[in-house]
Amino acid sequence: MSVDVLLGLQWGDEGKGKIVDVLTPWYDLIARFQGGTNAGHTLEFGGKKYVLRSIPSGVFQGGKKNLIGNGVVLDPLLFKEEAEALIAGGLSDIRKRLLISRKAHLILPTHRFLDAAYESVKGDSKIGTTGKGIGPAYTDKVSRNGVRVGDILQDFNTVYRQAKERHEAILRSFDYSYELRELEERWLEGVAYLKTFSLVDSEYFINMNLTEGRRILAEGAQGTMLDVDFGSYPFVTSSSTICAGSCIGLGIAPKHIGEVFGVFKAYCTRVGSGPFPSELTDETGDRLCELGHEYGSVTGRRRRCGWIDLVALRYAIMVNGVTRLIMMKSDVLDTFETIKVCVAYTIDGRRMDTFPYMLPADLRAEYVDLPGWQSDMTAINQKSQFPQAFSHYIAFLEEQLGVPITIVSVGPDREQTIICKPELIIQSN
Ligand code: GDP
Ligand code: IMO
Ligand code: MG
User: Fold this and answer.
1) Do 270 and 294 form a contact (C-beta atoms < 8 A)?
2) Least confident among 329-333, 334-338, 359-363
3) Is 41 a catalytic residue?
4) 356: burial class by Cβ within 10 Å (0-12, 13-18, 19+)?
5) CA nearest ligand 1 atom 28, residue
6) CB 40 near ligand 2, within 6 Å
7) 34-85 tens-digit pLDDT
8) From atom 16 of ligand 1, which residue's Cα is the shortest distance away?
């Protein structure tokens, strides 16, 4: 048995949550391997919409186990809010469905203030973080100053106080003013709440599941272009969002990785600062934003929009070893007469089809124009109904990217999903 990995290939918000939910029936265990409450994974079914932040997107399908892995940074306060909302919505047995790694690190209230303080001194080079304390929490982990989930069952007060005092000293040096008391009180209630869940040695749990032949899907957050090593640094998040991150964030050996599902939008978006070669700052960009409802599910921020970028996608496929592609939000392009596809960049008069170390301001994206299908895709439920121009779009992308597109999404609902190549989706091993 192997662990399949599903992750984003662009700058996040590709639609990972929806597809994890769609694929869950084929798996026994869904495991989040990195990120934290910077993620917002949206699922829609039965006329309702749900946004998950730390809890894996397999949680709605009964009988499945969900794991928050050691690679995740967990905010007890926001976790409590998320879990309570699910319980209020009917998931009363969430404690049976969800396990949490004792080795996951905690996001402390002061991490949020540090996140804001670091941003405040950056001036024009702000990253535009989600403000959830992600960077500072991972910084503490790597500098060996972190507080872990398992610590809440030990001498928690001491480790928490030490971490808080260290943070407060940094905040003073920034002359950053903040109000901790009320937030801390609610956060500590979150810590008490967290204790009512199964806190496990997740590396043993997941490897035992593997040995016993259970099917596992690892759920990524953010996207490859936000990866701390391979993304558009420094405008990235603070974790390894790529496939290799699933080994570290769950404690599974690389030899156990099976299929790697790469999720991408039929166009491209980015929220926050940083380079975006195929960005459209004109009315076409506004049109994509409105048709795709491109506003962040966590912060409500408007997402920047542009055409699909095959240079960045090829790079993402390479660093992840993607074996199956999944194309989302195809319906958003339904009304476009012409669809542009970025196939190369020109820098200093030189044509490049690899992703450069730095993306200079004078970079120009080179496009190929493809005909739009100009018909409503949202009610289509099988491949045979694809408009010809849409089939052509898929064939062009597959030829350029060298990996099959196995699922196409034509709307936000669970049902608006077409599995074009079922034989490549259902695990055969
Ligand atoms: P994630 O972070 O990768 O899980 O993606 P988000 O949930 O942040 O953003 C994807 C958004 O697009 C959500 O609002 C989804 O409901 C929506 N969505 C997903 N698939 C489709 C689709 O095929 N068509 C349309 N129109 N919306 C979609
Ligand atoms: P999902 O899982 C889109 C972006 C932020 C910012 C940068 C760093 O829903 O796809 P951070 O708070 O992580 O330090 O912010 O990363 N970012 C995301 N953009 N989707 C996400 O998650 C993101 N998580 C972080 O906007 O530019
Ligand atoms: Mg999202």
Assistant:
1) no
2) 359-363
3) yes
4) middle
5) 412
6) yes
7) 999 999 999 999 999 999 999 999 999 988 999 999 999 999 999 999 999 9
8) 412
How far apart, in whole angstroms, are the C-alpha atoms of residue 10 and residue 414?
21
pLDDT at 425: 86
Distance CA 360, CA 60 (A): 44
pTM over 0.90: yes
Q: Which residue has the tokens 């946004």?
A: 51
Instruction: Look at residue 340 in the predicted model and tell me its pLDDT.
Output: 98
The answer to whether 325 and 420 are in contact (CB under 8 A) is no
**CA terminus-to-terminus distance, the chain:** 6
**Residue 309 appears among annotated catalytic residues:** no
Residue 429 is predicted with a pLDDT of 43
Which ligand lies nearest the alpha carbon of 291? 1
User: Taking residues 165-190, what's their average pLDDT?
Assistant: 97
DSSP H or E run through 183: helix 181-194
Please tell me if the CB atom of residue 16 comes closer than 6 angstroms to any atom of ligand 1.
yes
Contact 25, 63 (CB under 8 A): no
Residue 426's pLDDT band, with cuts at 50, 70 and 90, is confident
Helix (H, G, I), strand (E, B) or coil at 82: helix
Among 4, 21, 41, 331, the one annotated catalytic:
41
Strand partners, 105: 73, 148
C-alpha separations of 228 from 30, 35, 40, 135, 271 in Å: 23, 11, 19, 10, 16
- Cβ proximity of 78 and 134 under 8 Å: no
Our answer on whether the CB atom of 127 is closer than 6 Å to any ligand 2 atom is: yes
- CB-ligand 1 contact for 294 (6 Å cutoff): no
CA distance 335 to 148: 49
Question: Does ligand 2 have an atom closer than 6 angstroms to the CB of 17?
Answer: no
Average pLDDT over residues 89-109: 97
Six-digit token string for 34: 């990195």
How many other C-beta atoms lie within 10 A of the C-beta of residue 211?
9
Helices (H), 8-108: 16-23, 76-88, 94-97
> What's the rounded mean pLDDT across residues 108-125?
96
- Substitution site in 52, 53, 129, 295 for ligand 2 pocket (most atoms within 8 Å of beta carbon): 129
Ligand 2 touching residue 242 (CB < 6 A)? no
Q: Is 262 helix (H, G, I), strand (E, B) or coil?
A: strand
For residue 166, what are the contacts with CB-CB under 8 A and spacing of at least 6? 145
Closest residue CA from atom 12 of ligand 1: 15
